[in-house]
């Protein structure tokens, strides 16, 4: 399509620009007429964990829509054989599956879980905030910055196109010229830095900010899962950082780490999966934690086998670092390496199985209430078990030569990522929505959402197992009538649109909840853990005084005994919260600097670098601790 | 009851140690890259590139700067302002000399034709040692900021906190340098 002054532009990009400008204008108009700017400003400058968590989830939902629309394009293109839907063939199709995968993993699943951690973990521990509120704000804005860098690529007709794994040598500048994959590198680099800071923040919070008596062995399982996940992030993400750094040198400065006669493409695969496999456990463990808390609450029972649950989380985390090469069975690492990695991979099924049985035993003889969060948890168990079983199938190295890069793999990881992470995030959002906003999402619409989503999900991905077994490779934009996978693909497409429709119900639910319902009290679900002792929405500085804990699910037992939780006499000082606009400015600076690198504009790189350094200097002289320490010294 | 500053310092120290773990893993990955690609089948060999004299000189300056930083650390204990000045000042001086020598080393190699793109040994050398050098440079800026803050009136406990965090950083950067000597230079110079 020809655009004046710009030239030839694919029509999907023109449509995206028009839609974005219209939506943006409508949003601005709405915020101005409804006088929402003070509220927006308050959220932008906040360091409060609940507000930051809410923003994480809100933005993740925006990216979810983007990644979801990508998925719709993919499914429409694949609906019938030899299809030519809009522009989504060959190179454009590569772009659309690359952005779908990358956005869903890094800008949807991660922030959804990190958002829920932000909201729930300090409250579950009896802490007044995360250990470093300022750093938390930095983390969030780095994520925003990375998300903007990655997503704007599409608007400049330069969406990354080497798959979410960005395999070399395809991802090097010899084979994919243009700025496309530079966007991938910088988007992930910046948001990854934010994730690392969040992990540090979570670990320090969990180790040092628990309320008196809240021993590690009394923590709710979501907090435990967050702790283990944070350690995984701490070890896995730096490897990604270095991998991206080396890829950047290959692309921008002419080295050849991953290609050519000197370099080694398999080294990229090793680095990527040493990060990438722990990453999938980073995505699933917090979801396990959410399900444990939800199932326990709605079964009116303590979680079954608490100790074995904690050990299982830790074991999964540990084993997660010993399995990366199962993504590379067909590379040719040799029989011994393949056997070892096959066995460690199968071993993960053991702790996961323990957790599944513990969830079932938690419900046994419990007083089960089928609420929306519980429904998502119940839907999760069989779905995830299917994903686990196909996972063990894929772990058989010899058989993997058949499954590798086929739709069987696509079906498998969607069963674990959607069946685990996304269902978990939905359960968590419905469950903690009162803590975020002070209102309860509508239960009836919630259940509609669940049923449409889960039916759509199985319709989409169950047939893909069979398409894969029949030889349909992933990442191809078309197939023929003779391939015999038309019906499977067609059903899959119908399912995908059902899932898309279920998300419209979420929007309807949000509208209904906020326009038509009243605020709820502190404990709408009859909960068991500390987050239900503070008001809804959770105020800044929620625990005054800080409670004293003497058992697992202490709040539940205090309700049973009709007593109030005892107060601790000498609580530790809380972290210092402030209002600051600096993190937003830093995010802006990093976007500008990244663009400098993406397009090779040296002056913008230099200016961005100086501005980023200037931020450090500003920070040094505007430390919120100064006033607090001075007061302490004077007294 | 513990002082607020003490509790918050312990939070920050744990957080910073965790950050150093992140850094350590990044360097570990780069060390692995270096070991994997060195020596390269083609292009320059490390034995013809490295010079013993430069390595000894840079090491003397950087490693002794960790020692002089101890003077400042002991000054923090009993709040001896002179000791802090002497410690920080000499550390800064030694660090700057190291930085100068490092830049000179890179410049020399480069002008002799041993560039980043020659082969993967040199590429991984420049990325690894360059990342270390940028840490030293960042540390030098940090020291300047510390000294400016030391001149300002600020709570004593806050200055001690900031200084201690910097000490951990500088010692960490030194440990990495020891590993660079052992892994990068020593096998090809001895």
From TrEMBL, chain A:
Residues passing through the membrane, by range: 13-32, 53-74, 103-126, 138-159, 183-209, 221-247, 267-291, 303-325, 331-354, 375-399, 411-433, 445-466, 486-508, 576-595, 601-621
Domain of life: Bacteria
Cytochrome oxidase subunit I profile domain location: 35-550
Record keywords, A-Z: Cell membrane, Copper, Electron transport, Heme, Iron, Membrane, Metal-binding, Respiratory chain, Translocase, Transmembrane, Transmembrane helix, Transport
Pfam families xref list: COX1 (PF00115)
Its biological purpose: Cytochrome c oxidase is the component of the respiratory chain that catalyzes the reduction of oxygen to water. Subunits 1-3 form the functional core of the enzyme complex. CO I is the catalytic subunit of the enzyme. Electrons originating in cytochrome c are transferred via the copper A center of subunit 2 and heme A of subunit 1 to the bimetallic center formed by heme A3 and copper B.
NCBIfam families: CtaD_CoxA
Protein name as it appears in the record: Cytochrome c oxidase subunit 1
UniProtKB/TrEMBL annotation, chain B:
GO annotations of cellular component type: plasma membrane
Primary location recorded for the protein, binned into one broad class: membrane
Membrane topology note: Multi-pass membrane protein
GO molecular function: cytochrome-c oxidase activity
Residue intervals of the Heme-copper oxidase subunit III family profile domain: 1-189
DNA-binding as UniProt keyword: no
Protein name per Swiss-Prot or TrEMBL: Cytochrome c oxidase subunit 3
Organism: Halobacillus aidingensis
């Amino acid at each position: 399509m020809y655009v004046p002054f710009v030239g030839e532009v694919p029509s999907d990009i023109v449509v995206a620009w028009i839609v974005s400008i219209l939506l943006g204008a409508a949003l601005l108009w709405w915020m101005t007429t409804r006088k929402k700017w003070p509220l927006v400003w308050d959220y932008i400058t906040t360091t409060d964990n609940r507000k930051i968590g809410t923003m994480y989830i809100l933005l993740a939902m925006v990216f979810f829509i983007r990644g979801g629309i990508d998925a719709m394009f993919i499914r429409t293109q694949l609906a019938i054989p030899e299809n030519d839907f809009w522009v989504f063939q060959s190179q454009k199709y590569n772009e659309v599956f690359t952005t779908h995968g990358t956005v869903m993993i890094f800008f949807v699943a991660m922030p959804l879980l990190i958002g829920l951690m932000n909201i729930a973990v300090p409250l579950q521990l009896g802490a007044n905030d995360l250990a470093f509120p300022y750093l938390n704000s930095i983390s969030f804005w780095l994520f925003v910055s990375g998300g903007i860098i990655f997503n704007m690529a599409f608007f400049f007709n330069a969406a990354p196109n080497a798959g979410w794994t960005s395999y070399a040598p395809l991802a090097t500048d010899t084979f994919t010229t243009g700025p496309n994959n530079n966007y991938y590198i910088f988007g992930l680099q910046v948001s990854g830095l934010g994730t690392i800071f969040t992990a540090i923040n979570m670990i320090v919070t969990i180790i040092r900010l628990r309320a008196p008596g809240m021993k590690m062995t009394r923590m709710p399982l979501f907090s435990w899962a967050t702790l283990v996940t944070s350690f995984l992030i701490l070890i896995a993400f730096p490897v990604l950082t270095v991998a991206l750094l080396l890829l950047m040198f290959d692309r921008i400065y002419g080295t050849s780490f991953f290609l050519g006669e000197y370099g080694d493409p398999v080294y990229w695969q090793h680095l990527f999966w040493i990060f990438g496999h722990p990453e999938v456990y980073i995505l699933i463990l917090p979801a396990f934690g959410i399900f444990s808390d939800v199932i326990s609450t709605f079964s009116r029972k303590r979680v079954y086998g608490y100790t074995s649950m904690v050990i299982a989380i830790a074991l999964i985390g540990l084993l997660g670092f010993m399995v990366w090469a199962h993504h590379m069975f067909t590379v040719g690492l040799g029989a011994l390496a393949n056997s070892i990695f096959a066995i460690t991979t199968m071993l993960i099924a053991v702790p996961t199985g323990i957790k599944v049985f513990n969830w079932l035993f938690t419900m046994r003889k419990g007083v089960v209430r089928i609420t929306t969060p519980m429904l998502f948890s119940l839907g999760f168990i069989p779905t995830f078990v299917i994903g686990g079983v196909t996972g063990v199938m894929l772990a058989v190295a010899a058989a993997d030569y058949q499954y590798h890069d086929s739709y069987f793999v696509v079906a498998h990881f969607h069963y674990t990522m959607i069946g685990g992470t996304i269902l978990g995030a939905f359960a968590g959002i419905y469950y903690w929505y009162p803590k975020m906003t002070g209102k309860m999402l509508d239960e009836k619409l919630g259940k509609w959402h669940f049923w449409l989503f889960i039916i759509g999900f199985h319709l989409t991905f169950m047939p893909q197992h069979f398409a894969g077994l029949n030889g349909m490779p992933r990442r191809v934009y078309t197939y023929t009538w003779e391939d015999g996978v038309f019906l499977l693909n067609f059903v899959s497409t119908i399912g995908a649109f059902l899932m898309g429709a279920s998300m419209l119900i979420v929007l309807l639910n949000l509208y209904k909840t906020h326009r038509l319902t009243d605020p709820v009290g502190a404990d709408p679900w009859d909960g068991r853990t500390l987050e239900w002792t503070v008001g809804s929405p959770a105020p800044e500085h929620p625990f005054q005084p800080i409670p004293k804990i003497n058992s697992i699910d202490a709040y539940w037992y205090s309700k049973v005994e009709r007593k109030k939780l005892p107060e601790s006499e000498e609580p530790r000082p809380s972290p210092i919260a402030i209002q600051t606009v600096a993190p937003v400015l830093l995010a802006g600076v990093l976007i500008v600097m990244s663009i400098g690198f993406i397009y090779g504009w040296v002056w913008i790189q230099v200016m961005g670098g100086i501005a980023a350094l200037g931020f450090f200097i500003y920070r040094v002289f505007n430390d919120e601790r100064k006033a607090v320490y001075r007061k302490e010294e004077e007294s | 009851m513990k002082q607020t500053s003490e509790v918050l310092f312990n939070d920050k120290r744990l957080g910073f140690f965790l950050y150093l773990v992140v850094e350590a893993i990044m360097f570990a990955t780069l060390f692995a890259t270096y070991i994997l690609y060195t020596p390269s089948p083609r292009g320059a060999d490390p034995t013809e590139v490295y010079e013993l004299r430069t390595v000894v000189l840079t090491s003397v300056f950087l490693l002794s700067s960790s020692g002089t930083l101890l003077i400042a650390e002991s000054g923090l204990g009993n709040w001896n302002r002179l000791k802090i000045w002497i410690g920080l000042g000499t550390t800064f001086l030694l660090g700057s000399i190291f930085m100068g020598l490092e830049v000179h080393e890179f410049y020399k190699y480069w002008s002799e034709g041993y560039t980043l793109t020659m082969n993967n040994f040199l590429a991984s050398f420049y990325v690894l040692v360059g990342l270390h050098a940028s840490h030293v440079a960042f540390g030098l800026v940090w020291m300047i900021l510390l000294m400016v803050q030391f001149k300002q009136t600020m709570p004593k406990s806050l200055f001690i906190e900031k200084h201690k965090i910097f000490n951990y950083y500088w010692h960490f950067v030194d440990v990495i340098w020891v590993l660079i000597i052992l892994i990068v230079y020593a096998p090809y110079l001895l």
